[in-house]
Sequence to fold (758 residues):
Amino acid sequence: MTPNLPAVTITGIGSVSPYGPLAGLIPQCSLQPSAITAWTTTGLRRAFLVQPFRPASVVPGLKTRRLDRLSAWALVASSLALKDAGIDLSQVDRSRVAVVFATAFGCVDLTEAFYLSAAANGWNGTDPSTFPETLPSAPASHVSMFHGLRGPNVTVSNKYFAGETALIQAASLLRHGQADVAIVLAGDALAQTLYSWYEVAGLLSPACYNSDPVSEAGGFIPCEGIAALVMELSGRANIRPDARSYARIRAGRWAAGGHPGEIIRQMLGGSVPSLTVCSGNGAPCATSPTIALAREVSGDAAVIILPLAVALGLAGTGALFHLILALSSRPVNGQALLLATAADSGFAALLLELV
Amino acid sequence: MTDIHKTIVVTGIGIVSPYGMGLDYLQAGMLSGKSCLEPTKDVYPGFEGTTAQVRELALLAKNFSSRYSRTDQLAALAAGDAMANSGCDRATFRESGVVMANTVGGLTEIDTGIAEDPAEWYRRPGGLLRGASYPFAHVADAVGEHFGIRGPRCAISVACASGAMAIALAADMLLDGAAPIILAGGSDPLCPFTLSGFNSLRALDPNPCTPFDQNRKGLNLGEGSAVLVLETLAGATARNANILAVLRGWAMTNDAFHPTAPQTQGRGLADCIRLSMEMAEVSGDDIGYVNAHGTGTPLNDIAEANAYETAFRGRNHPIPVSSTKSYFGHCLGAAGALEAAVTIMAVRSGVLLPTLRLTDPIESPGVDWLRGEVKRQPLPLAMSASSGFGGSNTVLIFGSGRS
Fold:
């Protein structure tokens, strides 16, 4: 995505997160992890969890009985984002609406369930209704089915920058005329197999094991949820009288190596963003290189918004939450950089115009 | 007039298939009419049915990191083959992008014990490493890390359309200037997880599959990987690259219909074909061959036939169509990329491969179901169609690079 291409505007936000199901920005409030009860643990284990809710109470008529949590959240978050954008799908050519979904682990709840059915019944006795829903792309497919969206439907991932990748790919689809509207979603659900992996690998914060307030003591606190953004070409959004504009995406780049400062400066084309939103990847050690890179490309005067623990806990799919939380903190208008680095795997950067 | 900055070309093709490693083995095997399908129980005891395996993978991948799943190994081998096929040294690819598709990620390395007692499973020797290969993004990282490629990496997973969609999205990325070259394709292995899943859905034909036959009974699973070297014509020309084909058009749509079944009339696929032809600025009469998705399942094949009837309505002659899954099975996330390579092979050599074992085709007057002998004729443009669970469709149109 090069800077001289048309800008893309974020016109709607929806989310299902530990803050609850929300349309629009997320009100500022302190959030503490909660105790895991979905599986048996040896002692207290905490994470930022989505509290159970009835999807139909948020989106009237929504039926999620046969869906896993991730797919259900995707339907709720996408519905809330469309509502926030003021888009009435009955007035839109749905063959021109794309869905781009970023996930690191996909429908891990159901993958666990499928393995359990194989353990119990043998490989020839597994549950046919579970298997197709284990696909990482199942939530995005359900979003297309529920809303009747017949445009491109893409599920992407990247170890550290899945959310950023989804934003860039969605903007690309819009700019190349392959869709008029894109719903971008990013997120994951937390399951026992994931939590255990983090724990055995020694990646968890001490705050996962006690009730102390969250501190920066190393490690991270796993999180779950899905954020959704509605994106439209800025020209289209401008002529829609009820369209809001949270931010415009001017350009984006990501790479697994090379010289990030050089690549980002080239992307900026002489712009000097006054704000950097750090979209970390779950490892606190990644924050410092991100700040150093932000200073390198934007100078010492740039305001830097540090990642919140709740969004850090979503690892590679946290970018949308980082952005929503930053927008919710009412940053200054002007140009901003959404920036993430990973020690061994490069960077992702999006140039935004906050309006 | 061709805009060389907006024209995407293929300058390398890498293949790992049940025929072996490399496009030459694939081409020779398919032209000879050899089927790679064999009884599953010979490969995976306890499973019935028919599959196609890459038998020499253990030997080919013996020097790979133990962190690499079978999916990763297939992908890295195909990527290496693609780079070699391009005739360039590895340094050429240093700033390249990697867009790799798959559906099962590292599930090949995971057994049922992980769900019964995850912590104990991870504590076993190698447990953490085996678990770490689970995310489907790992395949793109494996390719990038193995070859020291440091451009943008992206993994795609849209069920059986994944491999084709990786190529389409990579083309968009090239137009965006995201990287000078992109290695794009798909990789998927056989494993108990998918064998069990498709068996539970009763989607498998116990015998070698018969796509587009009125008596078709289901699909056969295969495994493999294909990677294309993609770049703009400007970039390829500047470095005097050998242009194998031009990616003339691509499109992606969704049926928005059902979690596993295609829309009965094939509307999503027909739309996708129309959009790809609009991008390529060609008509239905210009397309000389369609390499179909053609799984052999009752629902897919009839929906696909309906899509061709709709999309090619008004053509002067029935559209020639075949399914090459009849040769090496359905390779899931790799299928679209492997079939893109077969389509390029058809364009370059002017061969139209028949569907094997097709004796009583679906009645579809607008379609020329290729069967029997290989046909040879000039083929300026050919199409590869892919569809998948969740209603995803992707269509790619390739032309000869000679003009």
